[in-house]
Amino acid sequence: MSHTVPTIRPDLPGLQLGNLGGLRGQEDWGRWTLGKVTSVELKAARAGQAEVRLNLDLPYAQQRLSVFLNGRKLTTLKTAHQPQNFDLALPLSLVAGRNELKLVTNKSNLDPRFKPFAPQDLSDMAVSLKQLEFAPLQIFTGTQPGRIYGAVQPPYPPTYQQATGRQVDLFVQAAGPQVLTYRLLSSADQQTFILRLGGQTLRTVSADRRGTLVSGQVPLGPSDEVQRLSVVSSPLEGQKPVDDSIATIEKYTGAATFYIQELQVAPAHRWQKWEQPLAGLGVLLGLGLLLGLLFGQRRSTP
To answer: Which chain regions cross the lipid bilayer (predicted)?
Structure first.
């Protein structure tokens, strides 16, 4: 992880940094943002896809940080009852020419409405940026695992990732057929998830109750082009406080739209190579049971 903030990976050609706003000087670990708005200007030689990798600390409880690209909100991060670290990646659709990434928060060190988190420092610090790196998209292929965009790893539990908004994304490109495996944990009653590939709906699944784990597999056809695969949750209405297992998670990280136990793409042949052995095992077990019944009947016949 590069501690220079911001930085562009060498394997992302055609992208340059422009003007920076709302950043304190570079330190060994990264940089503080100053004030409530931080901007990073990007100059792209051509339109295309990239990712921004963020590792940051929000030092206040009940602090929000929204990320925008060219005026469009990408996500909003929120702390609950204590400061929190966030490590996530977001996909960027860059236009040719000038682009602007903005970080907008609601709390800062010198805001008179709040107690300063660093009273000994007279600067208006707001967010501790350990990483702000622009890089190529990580794509699921037949040999590379790719990345889930728009999800963070909460402090608790380690077995789930937390969606930062209503949607998480994967990017897929493979010459052969693939299989999408999903295991999603709902955070509301009557919650619906739509699985989309590009503009096509692959499947719609619903969870009747909050805390339901919905799972399954979806076959994907081969594609020579990079395709966006999205999981989109239905809007959540106002939820009444409930004392359940989800509330235990929310105590540490606040409410989330949904949680991800598994979301991955793998070559279809990984599953197919098990089908015949398992089918054969099922046949053998069935024959064994049938023979056992026949011999049992003969022994019991006088």
So the answer is: 278-296
